[in-house]
Structure formats: structure tokens, C-alpha cells
Amino acid sequence: MAAAVFFGCTFIAFGPAAALFLFTISRDPLRVIFLIAGAFFWLVSLLLASLVWFVTVQMSNKESSSQQKALLIFGVVLSVLLQELFRFAYYKLLKKANAGLLAISQEDTMPISVRQLAYVSGLGFGFMSGAFSVVNILSDSVGPGTVGIHGDSQHYFISSAFMTLAIILLHMFWGVVFFEACENQRWWSVGAVVFSHLLVSCLTFVNPQYEGSLIPTYLVLCVMAGWAFSCAGGSLRNLKLCLTCKDKDFLLANHRPR
Amino acid sequence: MNTSDSEEDACNERTALVQSESPSLPSYTRQTDPQHGTTEPKRRRHANSDTEAGHAARGGVAAPRERDSGPVPDGEDEELTVKYGAKHVIMLFVPVTLCMVVVVATIKSVSFYTEKNGQQLIYTPFTEDTNSVGQRLLNSVLNTIIMISVIVVMTIFLVVLYKYRCYKFIHGWLILSSLMLLFWFSYMYLGEVFKTYNVAMDYPTVAMIIWNFGAVGMICIHWKGPLQLQQAYLIVISALMALVFIKYLPEWSAWVILGAISVYDLIAVLCPKGPLRMLVETAQERNEPIFPALIYSSTMIWMVGMANPSQASDSADRSADEEVRHSEDVILEREEAEPEVQMHRGQNRSYSAEEELEEDRGVKLGLGDFIFYSVLVGKAAATGGDWNTTLACFVAILIGLCLTLLLLAIFKKALPALPISITFGLVFYFSTDNLVRPFMDNLAAHQYYI
Predict the structure, then answer these.
(1) Quick one: pLDDT at residue B410?
(2) β-bridge partners, B364
(3) Contacts 24+ apart (CB under 8 A), A243-252
(4) Residue of B328, B370, B366, B371 lying closest to B177 (CA atoms)
(5) Does the structure show a pLDDT above 80 at B162?
(6) What pLDDT does residue A249 have?
(7) CA–CA separation, B50 vs B62, rounded Å?
(8) Where does the chain cross the membrane (chain A) (predicted)?
(9) Closest to B399 (Cβ–Cβ): which among A40, A46, A201?
């Protein structure tokens, strides 16, 4: 326990996301603002879901644990649906704001493109989701204790960290795919995003059998990563050029001929 | 309130986050330019800066002035506008975040600031250790009324002092309060930190540390210093003040006071008869800078020439930032508290007609705003120990600040920075604490993820 677990789990959970933030978002103030706004939207969706859950719990039989569990599952499903709804609402808001700015500026270029917005808002959702899931657990891991002393799993902390990592990255990919689908009116893609989110959340119902939840989650993560990459305009050719440092941006930046 | 800037202004910055709905914006530029001779722009600029400064005060945010720049095409202008606007939002996000981080870190580690040993400020005489809920509520409301009245009285007192040109008195008051803050409160803070971490320390070393810290702080605040050092001191004293409030305000009173202060801020900045507004108007009439104090400014303003005859002195030009902070210090003394902050709102920079070197003016935020944001987040961290609540309040406050800056860009006049943020913060605090916390705790217990 203590410091090693705390730092290890923190870096596992937030490392990639923090790196993404630091290298791609922190330099541009507009992106930071949209990130925080995305986080705020996620928070509001959680608030509504919690409100509904709370009301149903108050009305239910508090003694029956199976009923409470069923209500919790209902809460999870509702929360996922609300999150996606708020993602859509954020998309609409951003489109309106961009349209307004565009109308005023009489220019063709917007200060931030829809794809960047998709990435940033997805990451915002991810940050907030990850933070709310894991921060309390992390703060508990600093103190003394024995994990799973009552027979629960001993891998609680590390599995939480990995799950959080997956969720944050997934939110980012979902954001990219979702916005792209909304832009092109491909509603089945939107449905697929919602379905995969539900799938990942429902997989966690088998915890603490982590093989049943973590492995499929990471598979979904890989699939979504590929999908988001292609939605963002990537392709095998681009990837090859980028990795061999022959892509246009790199060449321009380094003044080399192709 | 529009800035009318003469054509000779070289820079054109707009700090509007979003351009206002002005398809007429191009015509505005054309219209105003020919109307102003050399003296008027100067006058208008004074007025403008004063008004902005005035509104900025404790609860205020002042936008940098806008300038017209003939050659820059509108479209590019707009894009620049959005980018500059975003830059200014971030320039305020960073110090606000830093202040909150300092406060939350202290609250979570140093238990002194969360211990309640029955000591209370004289401004909140009614105790909350009563048996019935109704009595407790009543006591907290009474405490709030007393606190707010003290603040109002102080503000009015300061406005009166300013009206009758008692600058030396105000100056002395500010110096005294910053002395107290920089030396005494930081000594207390250091002592508590040492106690928490069980660090052995001797008095001569402490004396040296505190002396250096305080002396440099006084110099930075009242005279000259590197911008970032000044900003750092500003953040530190806001955090110290917030910690004092968190310690000494009783539970319920603190929440009611936060709510009441936002309402008061709204009234003081926007109503025609509000003390702050009167202060600004007085300064405008006299064509002199308002006492810059208690304002965090994100950039240093470069002043060429001096057109300010007030005895706020030439040092006021440089010390604008310092005074800003200074007035903030005033807040330390319980007596001064908010009114002081409000009083000394507004950076007042004198402009001369030949000034062309004005840099991007950045945005100004009153230190009182820093303090109350930090009080809210600190109290969220102190009660319950739930990090989700703290995070939620933090995000809510930042979004509120963002919206305020957006409104600032739209309306182009100084606005109170407290109401929106504190409202969001309060709503999210109570809802997260009561609704989200049980939900998330249940989810974490079963390791369900949403």
C-alpha cells in the first residue's frame, strides 16, 4: 500500500491522458476551455443520473439488497445513456457556437475545427469520468491498510487503475467517432458508440472477475481506437508516412524535400 | 461603455471571448474614429479604465480596453478576438486554479484549519452549537447579516474617504493590512505546517524566513517587482485569507455568507447607487486613477508618460499591481474585508495621449474573488473529505468564470465575477455531496464503471 501503490495507480490511470493533455491541448487556450466545458457537461449528466437514482432508492425498500443492486444497475444504464445524450447536446452547442462565430467573422476558417473539438470534448468527458471513478480510491490507497482483507479481490487498486485508463481513452475515441458520425448524419455509428459504452459498463458488472471485464474492455478499446483513427482521417498510408518521418507536416517543419 | 480610441493606437486587441452580436462593428470603427480629437480619447480612456477598474474591484472582472485598428481586417480580427479571449480566460484560470490547489492541499494536510475550537470572528458572534436546526439556521442568517453589513459599512467608509481625498489614510490602511497578512498570518501558517510535519525548527531561522518573505512581499506589492513574483504573492495572500475564513467561519454561516456575498457583489457592481459604482464615478469625475488594489492583473502595463495628477502618485502607476494586491491585503483585517476589495477595484492606468506601447492588457480579477472561490472549494474539501465534491466545485467555478468572461466580452464593461461562479459552485457542492456521492460510493464498492 501507501506511496508506491498510490503513485503507480495514479500514473497508470492518468498517465496517457495527462500526456495527451500536456502535448496537444495545454498550449492552445481554446482547447483547454472546451476541455473543461466537456468535463462540465459530463458532470451535469452524472448529476441528473444520480438524482434519478437517489429518488428511486428513496422510494424503494432499503433492506432488500437485491433490489438495491437492481436499482444500481438501472442507475448505471441510465447514467451511460445520459452521458451520451449530453455528448450529443455538447455537440449541438458547439455547432451553434461555431456557426455563430463563423457568421460574425466572415471568414472561412473557424478557430478550432470540429475534429479538434471532438477530440478535446471526448478527452474532457474522459478526464472527468476517470477522475470521479478513481480519485477517492487513490486517496484511500495512500493510507495504511490491507487490500481485500475480508476476502475481496487483492487486485482492487490496480484493476481500478487499468479500468480507468481504458475508460478515459474510450471516452476520447467515442467523442471522435460520435462527432464525426453526427457531422455526416450516420446514425448507426452513433448507435454503435452508445452500444459500446453500454457494453463496457455492463461488463463491469462481472467484477471482481477481472478477466471478464478488463480483457473485453481493452478489446473494445482497440477496436474504437482503430475506428477513431480512421474517422479522424488516418489511414495505413498516413501512418506509414508518419512513422518513417516522411509526412508533409514533419517535412515542412524540418524544411526537407519529400 | 465603449472605448473610443484614436487612430494612432498601434495595437489592436480585443479581449472579447466572443464578439458581441455586432454586425455593426465595422461601422462602429468608422464612426468613432473621426469623432475624437486628441484630448477626448485621453479622457475617454481614463473614463473607460476607471469604469472598468471600478467594476473590476472585488467582484469584478475588467476587460482590457479595446482598440480599433484600421488596417486589420474584420475577419482576422474576429479570429484574433476569439484567440485573445481564450488566452485571457486561461490567464485567469491558472492563478485561480493555483490558489484553489494551495488551499485544498493545506486543508487536506494541515489539520489546524479544519479544527473548530469554538473560536469565532467578532463578525459572526452567534454560535452554531445549538440544539435545533431552526435555531442554527437563524444564527447563521444573523451572522451573515452582520458580516454583510460590516462589509457594506466598510465599503461606504472607503468611498467617503476617497470622496474627501483622504488618500494617505487609505494608503496607511492598506500598508497596515498587508503587513499583517504577510507577516503574521504567514508566520501562523508556517508554524502549523511545521507542526503537522513534525519539523524541528528554531526561532532565528523562522524569523529570517518570515522577514524575507514579508519584506519581499511588501516591496513587490507596494513598489516594484517581477510580474510573476507579484502574481505569486497575490495568490499566496489570497490563499492565506481564504484559509482564515475557512477556519473561523462557522459551517452554515460560511455557506450563507457565500450566497449573500454574491448577491451583494451583483448589487454593488451593477446598481447605479452601488458603492463601487459611486467610487468609479467619482474617480471618473476627477479624471484620476482609482486606487488600484486588490486586483490580480495578468499583465504588466507599460506606461509611457503620466497624465495622472493624483497623489496616488507616480508610484501608483507601477504599483498599480502592487496596490491591487495591497488593497487585497486590506481584506485581511477583518474590518476591511470585502468593502476594501471593492473599493480598490480596477486597475487604473493613466494614459497619455502619446502612449502607443500598450501591451495586451490582460484581464483583471479582484482578489476577493480569488478568496471566495478558494473558500468554497476549501470548504468542500474540508467537510466530508470526498474528492469528488471538491473536483465538482472546482470545475463549476471555472465554468462560471468562463461564462463571466464571456459576458464580459459581450457587454464590454466590468462585471461582478462572483455571482455565476459561486452559484454554480454552491449548486454543485450540495448536489454532489448529497446525490452523486452515495451513487459513486456504491458504484466504487461494487467496482461498476459508468
Answers:
(1) 84
(2) B62, B297
(3) none
(4) B328
(5) yes
(6) 75
(7) 10
(8) 6-25, 32-55, 70-90, 117-138, 158-179, 186-206, 218-236
(9) A40
Q: Note the pLDDT tens digit of each residue in B192-223.
A: 999 999 999 999 999 999 999 999 999 988 88
Contact B82 A46 (CB under 8 A): no
Q: In this structure, how many other beta carbons lie within 10 angstroms of the beta carbon of residue B231?
A: 23
Q: Whole-angstrom Cα distance, residue A155 to residue B259?
A: 44
For residue A108, the distance in angstroms to the closest alpha carbon of chain B comes to 9
Interface contact flag, A137 B402, Cβ < 8 Å: no
The pLDDT of residue B27: 34
The amino acid at residue A231 is: C
A88 burial level (CB within 10 Å; 0-12, 13-18, 19+): middle
Residues of B serving a catalytic function are 265, 369
In terms of DSSP H, where are the helices of A143-155?
Answer: none
pLDDT at B39 over 60: no
Decide if A43 and B395 are in contact by the 8 Å CB cutoff: yes
Q: Which of residues 107-146 of A touch B (CB under 8 A)?
A: 107, 109, 111, 128-129, 131-133, 135-137, 139
Buried (b) or exposed (e) across A35-50, using 16+ Cβ within 10 A? bbbbbbbbbbbbbbbb
CA distances from residue A139 to A142, B202, B214, B368 in whole angstroms, order as listed: 6, 33, 34, 31
Provide the whole-model pTM: 0.80
Cβ–Cβ < 8 Å for B222, B230: no
Q: Are B4 and B44 in contact (CB under 8 A)?
A: yes
Mean pLDDT check: name the lowest of A193-197, A235-239, A249-253.
Answer: A249-253
Residues B50-61: what's their mean pLDDT? 40
Q: Can you give the residue range of the structural domain that contains A145? A: 1-254
Distance from CA of A21 to the nearest CA of B (A): 15
What pLDDT, on a 0 to 100 scale, did the predictor assign at position B88? 85
- The tally of domains found in chain A comes to 1
